[in-house]
Amino acid sequence: MSLHAVFPMKYIVKEAHYARLCSTKPILTVNGQFPGPTIRAYHGETVYVNVHNKAKYNITLHWHGVKQPRNPWSDGPEYITQCPIKPGGKFKQKLIFSIEEGTIWWHAHSDWARATVHGTIIIYPKPGTSYPFPKPDAEHKLTVVGADSSYSKPVTRDYICISPGQTVDALLHANQEPNDYYMAARAYSSAVGAAFNNATTTARIHYNENHSPTKSPSLPYLPSYNDTKAAFDYYGSIKGIPEYYPYKVPTNITTHMIATLSVNIVPCPEGQTCGGPNGTNFASSMNNISFESPTIDILEAYYNHISGVYDKGFPRFPPLVFNFTAEYLPLVLEIPRKGTKVGIIKYGSTVEIVFQGTNLVAGIDHPIHLHGTSFYAVGYGFGNFDKHKDPMTYNLIDPPLINTILVPKNGWATIRYRAANPGVWFVHCHLERHLSWGMETVFIVTNGKRSDEKVLRPPPDMPRC
């Protein structure tokens, strides 16, 4: 049974006028909706989406958390796996669902269009199967049962923490006295001196039974906006369900990597005014390389053996070793190299990556997203990663299987996964500003030996560069 078996979905990218906070302005939308339309699919289904760009700007769409086995052609990041869909252009995108069940999302992956061009993806279990959790009984507390479209052991929480790029499936049992009750959310921000919207947003749970609703329900408890301990207490409480995952946590690692995540500065171009410290321009980097996007997409260059588009040799380890989380660091360390370096990973490798935050310019948490795979979040810590001591703290029994991990401010996070999806896959910070500054790289997973371990052929309507 398919939810989209007869006709592909139609996504028309166009401007529409929306009113928010007492003002009306044109915004970029899909089908005139904000948020955009929801995609509903069953486990293992393939869905087609016809994208027609009727806007004034280039656009690409990314299906965040969809593994797209052997099909990087429809993954979406601009100049990584495709050139943008130009105004007036069309592209039929193929969404291959494989192991996903639960909630993920889709969003624009070009410039800053993600702010309004985004929507939900809901993947149901195969017809005739059930969910692996019981009905909750938690008195309006949230019972978390999944993260990033993978099931997790049910855990009841007073609050949940979601970094940019992440999704959570949670159950709420409406078993209280009929009334109105507040739901509330606010930003978590560990940056010092960085402006952000510190307002608390609310919604109401309204019981349909006859009652006189409270005019001002009490607000639920939320940790402080900069309570890093509360954020990572939450992440540490999420445990996986190994029997529902496609493979066990890798223990025999063949590819080790440590990647530093830094905010940087670069000289301000002549004749411009820049907003960085002392008139410089902000940048960001992974392993001291601030990524520069090419003008031909890397996937096309890789598949068709076009030289000069990217360089191999993204460093497996930091090229500069220092006290990454020290309070004061030499200014010379703040200027990164620029380049389009990618990492080559052999098909079938078992990979461990330690993401190490640094305190260059300004330490902050970084939500790191890998395209084309889910990974096990096996460890978190604060300070500099100790390769002798910290692996002893890894959870190799029941870590969650996710696609985006929050690396703590001036700390580290470790992931493990099996590189079994050939293709070109983007790796980046999901803070839009850091992405635009260069905190990203690309992993190319080589083809395997068998025919079902190789990248599929490109579709005939790939957007031209």
UniProtKB/TrEMBL annotation:
Gene3D superfamilies: Cupredoxins - blue copper proteins (2.60.40.420)
Molecular function via GO: metal ion binding; oxidoreductase activity
Record carries keyword Oxidoreductase: yes
Primary localisation category: secreted
Localization of this protein: Secreted
Plastocyanin-like domain mapped to chain residues: 13-126, 139-210, 337-448
Any one GO cellular component localisation term in the record: extracellular region
Top-rank taxon: Eukaryota
Annotated InterPro entries: Cu-oxidase-like_N (IPR011707), Cu-oxidase_2nd (IPR001117), Cu-oxidase_C (IPR011706), Cu-oxidase_fam (IPR045087), Cu_oxidase_CS (IPR033138), Cu_oxidase_Cu_BS (IPR002355), Cupredoxin (IPR008972), CuRO_1_LCC (IPR034288)
Keywords: Copper, Glycoprotein, Metal-binding, Oxidoreductase, Repeat, Secreted
Cofactor(s) for this UniProt protein: Cu cation
Record-stated family: Belongs to the multicopper oxidase family.
Protein name: Laccase
Species of provenance: Flemingia macrophylla
